[in-house]
């Protein structure tokens, strides 16, 4: 089940994260999507159930927060 999703400022990319509703366990990854093609561009590890995801204003960072009060940040190449 998707718990959180966020669009980049230019609306070209989407981050999704959540947990497996069947097992109530965290997913294998947070996914970065290309909105136009619907393809996954990249995946990031999700050590716990994801509570929120977001892009930085300039689109160069992706962030996620988790159920156990942890946060992850990833650098994103321009346009990816």
The computed structural class is mainly beta
> How many whole angstroms does the radius of gyration measure?
12 Å
Uncertain runs are none
Distance between the termini: 24 Å
Number of domains: 1
SS field, number of helical segments? 0
Strand order of the largest sheet: 1-2-3-4
User: What's the mean pLDDT score?
Assistant: 87
Overall form: globular
Element pattern in H and E = EEEEEEE
Strand content: over 45%
Tell me about the biggest sheet?
A: 4 strands, antiparallel
Description of the structure:
With 80 residues, this protein is mostly beta strands. It has one domain (2-75). It has strands at residues 2-7, 13-18, 29-34, 39-45, 50-55, 61-66, 71-75. Strands 1-2-3-4 form a four-stranded antiparallel β-sheet, with no helix packed on it. Strands 5-6-7 form a three-stranded antiparallel β-sheet, with no helix packed on it. The termini are far apart. The mean pLDDT is 87.
Entry keywords:
mainly beta; three-stranded antiparallel β-sheet; about 0% helix; about 80 residues; four-stranded antiparallel β-sheet
Write the layout of secondary structure elements.
Elements (H helix, E strand, L loop, with lengths): L1 E6 L5 E6 L10 E6 L4 E7 L4 E6 L5 E6 L4 E5 L5
Antiparallel strand pairs: 1-2, 2-3, 3-4, 5-6, 6-7
Short description:
The protein is mainly β and 80 residues long. The chain is 0% helix and 52% strand.
């Amino acid at each position: 089940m998707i718990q959180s999703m966020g669009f980049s400022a230019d609306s070209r990319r989407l981050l999704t994260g959540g947990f497996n509703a069947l097992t109530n366990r965290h997913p294998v990854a947070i996914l970065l999507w290309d909105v136009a093609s619907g393809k996954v561009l990249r995946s990031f590890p999700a050590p716990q159930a994801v509570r929120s995801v977001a892009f930085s204003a300039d689109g160069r960072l992706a962030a996620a927060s988790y159920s156990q009060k942890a946060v992850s940040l990833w650098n994103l190449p321009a346009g990816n």
